[in-house]
Amino acid sequence: MTIEKVLVTGGAGFIGSAVVRHIIETTELTVVNVDKLTYAANLSSLASVADSPRYTFERADICDGTQMSALLASHRPDAIMHLAAESHVDRSIDGPAAFIETNIVGTYALLQAARGYFDTLTGAARARFRFHHISTDEVFGSLGDAGLFTENTRYDPRSPYSASKAASDHLVRAWGETYGLPVVLSNCSNNYGPYHFPEKLIPLIIIKGLAGELLPVYGRGENIRDWLHVEDHARALLAIVTRGRVGASYNVGGHNEVTNIEVVRRICGLLDELAPHAGGTAHSDQITFVTDRPGHDFRYAIDASKISRELDWRPTETFETGLRKTVAWYLERRDWWEPILAGKSATARRGLASDGGKG
After folding, report:
1. Hey, how many other C-beta atoms are within 10 angstroms of the C-beta on 157?
2. pLDDT score for 357
3. 58 classed as catalytic
4. Is 161 a catalytic residue?
5. Which of 138, 169, 232, 257 is labelled catalytic?
6. Active-site residue among 55, 108, 117, 161?
7. Annotated active-site residue in 137, 226, 257, 317
8. SS in 3 state form for the chain?
9. Predicted pLDDT at 49
10. Which CATH number is 5-192+228-254+300-317's, of 3.40.190.10, 3.40.50.720, 3.40.50.980, 1.10.10.10?
11. Model pTM?
12. What is the per-residue pLDDT across 280-338, written as a single tens digit (0 to 9) for each?
């Protein structure tokens, strides 16, 4: 399928900005970045492509259906890549309302706008249009010691965040089945890499490690995640939106299952090598175990054989290579993350439902 213009929602976020950078830097496609610029969005993540004549930024809220319809009518994209979402599980525990509003109501508003726009298309423009919804493996719930999530795994969300993403997945499928909107979906494992907002595990541990602060690990750190480098994910998403089958879903994983405590220990080892403490103490001495997250899923693991088989995608980064590059990036790019720490309390502990989840 030949497309020329993609509208990316949430393009100033972590995964969204990686997608925008990848498209502008490696293709001839035009990108329209639509982002509300909430707390985790950062336009400086797009500095390398901001001056490209093929890049346009529109500050807008996906919950505003009228505004979304106007943007689609104005820019007339060949595809929508929907990444705009509230995404931090701990924040969803403390304040689920924002997740319901953005992830469910916002997806509904965007689907309605896309449906109206699609109905105006004819001929080749109608044939090539796609609505790509980007979601998470957390919608599938928790795995035991064995097994993998496939595209046919039963949904079993356990947190307000994963429940809101499950709902948005179902809405997208329903708009495909009921209204004929040409949709495609993807569910990914845990992303990591450059430009990651410091509230998430890997950047949080890097930054606290550099500062000599305690490194918090939930429970005993035995929970397992499959880690996917964000730039590998960006390549997968471009393959899905351009070559994925209408109505299909694709799981995207990194083939890197690691316990949380092992992630932290590996970061400590890299910091000992690349940024040793002046006194020679090991960064691992800063590890401390804290109260676990409520309903903390034990294990996620992705079977990515479908996207490999159908779209010839495979991750290029191992966790070892990707984590080393990530730690090195945070050491080099204090100019990116230090202003975030100064202005947004990004590293504060959340997810204890101290306000009863009323936020």
Report:
1. 21
2. 43
3. no
4. yes
5. 138
6. 161
7. 137
8. CCCCEEEEECCCCHHHHHHHHHHHHHCCCEEEEEECCCCCCCHHHHCCCCCCCCEEEEECCCCCHHHHHHHHHHHCCCEEEECCCCCCHHHHHHCCHHHHHHHHHHHHHHHHHHHHHHCCCCHHHHHHCEEEEEEEHHHHCCCCCCCCECCCCCCCCCCHHHHHHHHHHHHHHHHHHHHCCCEEEEEECEEECCCCCCCCHHHHHHHHHHHCCCEEEECCCCCEEEEEEHHHHHHHHHHHHHHCCCCCEEEECCCCEEEHHHHHHHHHHHHHHHCCCCCCCCHHHHEEEECCCCCCCCECCECCHHHHHHHCCCCCCCHHHHHHHHHHHHHHCHHHHHHHHHHHCCCCCCCCCCCCCCC
9. 98
10. 3.40.50.720
11. 0.93
12. 899 999 999 998 777 777 898 999 999 999 999 999 999 999 999 999 999 999 999 99
Q: Which residues of 103-127 are buried (b: 16+ CB within 10 A; e: fewer)?
A: bbbbbbbbbbbbbebbeeeeeeeee
| Contacts within 8 Å (CB) and 24+ apart, 144-149 | 144/298, 144/299, 145/299, 147/301, 148/301, 148/302, 148/303, 149/187, 149/251, 149/300, 149/301, 149/302, 149/303
pLDDT at 356: 43
Which residues of the chain fall short of a pLDDT of 50?
A: 349, 355-359
Pairing of strands 257-259, 224-229: antiparallel
For residue 178, give the amino acid letter: T
Q: Is 138 a catalytic residue?
A: yes
> What's the pLDDT score for residue 31?
98
